[in-house]
Write a structure and sequence with these properties.
Rhomboid-like fold, mainly alpha
Amino acid sequence: MSAAVRDRAPRWRTAAAVTLAFVVVLWVLEGVDTLLGGTLDGGGIRPRSDDGVIGVLLAPLLHAGWGHLIGNTIPVLVLGFLVLATHLARGLAVTAIVWLVGGMGTWLVAPTYTIHLGASTLVFGWLLYLILRGVFSLRVGEIALGVVLLLAYGGLLWGVLPGQPGVSWQSHLFGALGGALAAWWLRGREERRRRRSPSEWNTF
């Protein structure tokens, strides 16, 4: 095993553990919600409602039934792992940006008297982040991964458009915008940090 692979292995294990733990939380919460007769679903985003704004924090953790959760589970496992695998702190920052932008955008523009919930906000944000990351970094590996993900999951992006009853295209759209913002902003921060740090040190 090469040194590079050995160095990445702990990061990959941590990313896998964090992603799996997150999915376990989603499944436990859905189990609790089932026992409570769907009571937790009321904690989703209720647009422009003062008490409904708490849904910005809760909505990605809640699902409208097992079918909804099952549909999100594989994308969450795959994309969540890929976002965290390169750098855990950066991946968590990406997730926070997507979570907040997706939630607040939905709260601001979605129709009144509706409830929006589900981890698909994160799925759309992570997907667009991973696709655009290589565009901003110009790194061959990140570009290649973005192309593969575009081919594999690109069809999901149609979900940002209105038209499918019962689907929160607003949370998809703003989650995707959050992912694009994260790709641009975090790459800019990385470049500024690199310019401030000397690339070579002379020792005497």
